[in-house]
Amino acid sequence: MLDFFSTIGGAIMAPLYYVISAVLVGFHKLFGSVFGPETGIAWVLSIIGLTLVIRMALIPLFVKQIKSSRNMQLIQPKVRELQKKYGHDRERLAQETMKLYKDSGTNPFASCLPILLQMPIFLALFRLIDQAAKNPQDPKGLMTVTLNEQFGDAVFLGAKISDTFLNTDDIGVRVLAAVLVLAMTATTFLTQRQLMSKNMPADALSGPYAQQQKMLLYVLPVVFAVGGIAFPIGVLFYWTTSNLWTMGQQFYVIRNNPAPGTPAAAAKEDRDRAKAARKGQKTPAQIEEERLAAEAEARRAEKSDTRQQPQRQSKSQRSKKKR
Q: Which residue ranges are recorded for the region named Disordered (predicted)?
């Protein structure tokens, strides 16, 4: 039975081995020609190059994730209203909530897609490194025996790319692995923190979605820290580079296209106002504010004119005034 599932798993992962090894070998030819094919720097840069290619391919999913996350934030007040209205009827609450998601174009699971899609890639890279270190005579994908041997034996900053925190007694290797685990953990925490502190409206910070985000804020770094001590150095470079990409990409999106009613939106409006002032112009928000103020002033003037308009008098009232 185990052999059956192993065969099925291998068949599923085989295409990934070819894709990942093709990108890895391509970058290795480039960097190997500069630093030497057996050097650790050539392989580390190849892993970083692989990471950047994967993250660029995932940009459409990241944009979808950001939009879905924004929609989830904006509809939280409506979700809370549904909970108050149908809290006694779980089935009706679930139906109305799913209807709200559908009407607003929100997918509550979209925020998990980039991570879920990266996990098979992560596992495939893990297996490539592990295979290169333990069984170089059985290459996977486009890796050859020679490349496997170079990959498994490549040394970077005194540590083999295939080394982990647990499989060595070398203090230098453990220090490097610990630094990379801490970097991976810290970047995971800061990425989630950046989203919550800058791009979540105040009224969304107390709902179930906010509780979910807070849980992920503290649980994910712990999971990565615990699991990271068993990751090869090469995999730690992959995941840390991926996290740094996410931080930069998320910073750009939040800065330039923040969710309404968030600290990021207020900061963007301040920047737009300052930029417009330097050019002697007005921002769209200022123009809208002036339009609304003018409309309010016109309504007040209209009400004032209505109150001051003289009332019609009867003939007897007018004759009494003449006397």
A: 261-323
Q: Which amino acid, one-letter code, is at 43?
A: W
pLDDT, tens digit only, all 323 positions of the chain = 334 334 445 567 788 889 999 999 999 999 999 999 999 999 999 999 999 999 898 888 777 777 777 777 777 778 778 878 877 778 888 888 888 887 777 776 666 666 777 788 888 888 888 888 888 888 888 899 999 999 988 999 889 988 988 888 889 889 999 999 999 889 888 887 877 767 666 655 555 666 666 777 778 788 878 888 888 999 999 989 988 998 888 888 888 878 777 777 888 888 888 888 887 777 676 677 777 777 777 777 777 665 555 555 555 655 555 55
d(CA 119, CA 21): 16
Q: Answer yes or no: are the C-beta atoms of 72 and 106 closer than 8 Å.
A: yes
CA pair distance 119, 116, nearest whole angstrom: 5
The residue whose two tokens read 């003289």 is 310
Joined tokens for residue 79: 């979700």
pTM for the model: 0.74
Q: What is the residue type of 254?
A: I
